[in-house]
Specification:
Length: about 650
């Protein structure tokens, strides 16, 4: 019985998440008009309602995310107030800065419920709906007060005592992540994934940066995260690369070939392939030999992979990307036969002009599973990889951080895999987290002045140079040691490159601009890292005047208040941490974390300008301990957020 309820609860969660992402997906704003989407939404609502009716009574689920807790409280209240309404999840949002005087959060479900009641023939004004909802709010320690505004909005004011306790806890324990939902669950994140023997380009940089922070996010909440580098290390192009390698480096199996420029090597091979008949023939033979594991040819292939790997690793080392495990396309070679056999057995493949294709439900273009001549494709290897990740690795969540250009490919693969029974969407969350292309400041494809692809190492070098120049401009070499200067330049350069990417909605194209990303006055890592050093230095003001123990005692007892509106605002922003991260896990969008960090830093500045840590009263100094606690809580959540973004913080800069 318990297990059944759990499963239903999970189904509701999943459906709600699907619904939320349909409704909140910014790109689908116009598409909302789209009747297909509307239908989907109403079907989802119905499905949720059905699950709900089997699952009574609803229970309040309080969590570290204040928003999620409020949603739960209101959801329960609505179910209690209107047991016959086919139930929806309460719509609660934090109020915008302009509306803050009307409340901290707002629930606007009353109108919708009144509409649903009206459809069912019952007339009741939204404001009366709101009253009834409020009568049914379960007792809790979160809400201080509520008001009904306008046509039936419910404004929620947060309880200060609750906030004080949570801030005190942050001071004493640091950020705590609720791991109850992640226990024993695995997340597979496929990211970076460059191609062997080709230059790793800015697209792979995006994938690396975004993928790494998605992986960090799930890991923070206790999931077992597998970071998979699905490198393109297989395919017919290796035939020609191997032929060229054998000609140029006959001792390839003894010494790592010194190919300094793989791009050039690739181009040379291609040219010979196109021009020389004999070379072409050898290239084809190599493909066959590679597939049949001919030892010498296999070694040549490995040598080429090794050269690439060394190049990739340079980028990973500099960006401090760790834990990324290479499981490339070649890994699935021997597993593809079995998958194709299964598909054939289930009669899912269609013979079409020499090749085997597979139609996936709802998708106009079929997958090519077997090429004319028997070879496999990118579709085949991804179907196989998905099957492996679900059924061998036992992943519960699969995430593919790959450019939006491959959106159709992933829709095909996911739909086909589900049709083939490789996974059940009710059990396994499988998502393509796509991202847009990188543009230069001229809004054209990102290239060097001479039109070449930008080498990532060069790009990173330039970042370091610019960050260093900036530090010199600010005269920092007078304060910092040589090592501190180097650390600062590294952290600022890589931090800024990462942050600039992460702060824009990944689905959009993104303009790469060093000037913007390094601007110490803008919403950049440079600015935020600097803010963090300031926040951390607050303690210095009271050095020798109060001990950490005394501070933590006050934090524990909750004997401080948030009387000044700037203190209150800062506390409220700090406490949105888990709400923001919970949404990020739902949407796989990182930019709201950056927006929140910027808000947090602004809230801190406003607080710090007006709320003095030491106040003079009748000629006596009074230490405002609550303010110290607020500053330390700010630093804790900010550091935690930087960690998730994969950005190293500094003590001095
Ligand atoms: N499972 C995957 N298909 N992952 C992404 C691979 C990306 C591919 N190597 C590329 O550079 O475009």
């Amino acid at each position: 019985m318990e297990a059944k309820i759990n499963k239903q609860a999970q189904t509701i969660d999943r459906l709600s998440a699907e619904l939320d992402s349909l409704v909140s997906n910014p790109q689908s704003e116009e598409a909302k008009e789209n009747s297909k989407l509307k239908y989907q939404i109403s079907q989802l609502q119905k499905a949720i309602a059905e699950e709900r009716t089997n699952l009574k009574p609803l229970e309040v689920e309080m969590s570290a995310s204040i928003l999620d807790s409020l949603v739960s409280l209101f959801t329960v209240a609505i179910a209690g107030a209107f047991p016959n309404v086919p139930f929806i999840k309460a719509a609660v949002n934090p109020t915008s800065p302009k509306q803050e005087k009307f409340g901290d959060y707002q629930c606007n479900s009353s109108m919708q419920i009144a509409g649903m009641l009206k459809d069912a023939g019952e007339k009741i004004a939204p404001r009366d709906v709101a009253k009834k909802i409020l009568d049914n709010i379960p007792s809790n320690n979160l809400i201080k007060e509520t008001t009904i505004a306008g046509p039936g909005f419910i404004n929620v004011f947060m309880c200060q005592k609750y906030m004080v306790n949570r801030i005190g806890e942050l001071n004493n324990l640091g950020v705590q992540y609720d791991k109850s939902k992640s226990r024993g669950r695995k997340v597979v994140v496929d990211y970076s994934s460059p191609n062997i023997a080709k230059e790793m380009h800015v697209g792979h940089l995006r994938s690396t940066i975004i993928g790494d922070s998605i992986a960090n996010l799930f890991e923070a909440y206790g999931y077992e995260v597998l970071r998979i580098n699905h490198v393109g290390d297989w395919g017919t192009q290796f035939g020609m690369l191997i032929a060229h390698l054998i000609d140029l480096f006959p001792d390839y199996d003894k010494n790592v070939p010194r190919i300094s420029d793989l791009q050039k090597f690739y181009k040379e091979s291609k040219k010979r392939f196109d021009d020389e008949e004999d070379f072409k023939k050898r290239a084809y033979e190599n493909v066959v030999k590679l597939q049949s594991h001919d030892p010498a040819i296999h070694k040549a292939w490995q040598a080429i992979c090794e050269v690439s790997r060394i190049e990739f690793q340079k980028v990973y080392d500099r960006l401090q990307i760790t834990g990324l495990k290479e499981v490339g396309e070649s890994f699935y070679q021997d597993k593809m036969n079995a998958v194709v056999d299964q598909l054939k057995k289930r009669d899912l493949l269609e013979f079409d002009d020499g090749r085997y294709i597979m139609w996936a439900p709802g998708i106009e273009i079929p997958l090519t599973v077997v090429k004319t001549g028997g070879g496999y494709t990118y579709d085949t290897s991804d179907l196989t990889a998905l099957n492996y990740r679900v059924n061998e690795i036992k992943g519960d969540i699969l995430i593919y951080v790959v450019d939006c250009g491959q959106e159709l490919h992933f829709r095909q693969v996911f739909a086909a895999a589900s049709k083939a029974g490789f996974y059940d969407a009710a059990q396994t969350r499988v998502e393509h987290a796509g991202f847009g292309v990188v543009l230069g400041e001229d809004k054209k494809k990102f290239k060097t002045r001479s039109g070449e692809t930008v080498r990532l190492v060069d790009l990173l070098d330039e970042g370091i140079k610019r960050a260093n120049d900036q530090l010199l401009e600010r005269g920092r070499e007078k304060e910092l040691t040589a090592q501190e200067m180097k650390d600062a330049a590294d952290a600022v350069a890589y931090g800024c490159i990462k942050y600039a990417d992460l702060k824009s909605n990944r689905k959009n194209d993104y303009v790469f601009s060093f000037d913007q990303m390094l601007d110490i006055r803008g919403n950049t890592a440079a600015y935020l890292l600097y803010q963090l050093t300031r926040i951390r230095s607050v303690n210095r003001k009271v050095e020798g005047k109060i001990t950490d123990e005394e501070i933590s005692k006050i934090a524990t007892s909750g004997q401080f208040d948030l009387a000044d509106p700037r203190e209150f605002k800062l506390a409220k922003t700090i406490l949105r941490f888990h709400e923001i991260l919970s949404q990020a896990q739902r949407d796989l969008l990182i930019h709201p974390i950056c927006e929140w960090m910027y808000d947090l830093s602004n809230a801190f500045s406003q607080f710090y300008d007006k709320c003095y840590i030491i106040e003079k009263k009748d000629g006596k100094e009074e230490i405002k301990v609550g303010r110290l606690i607020l500053a330390s809580a700010t630093a804790s959540v900010m550091e935690a957020a930087f960690k998730i973004l994969g950005i190293r913080t500094l003590h001095k800069m």
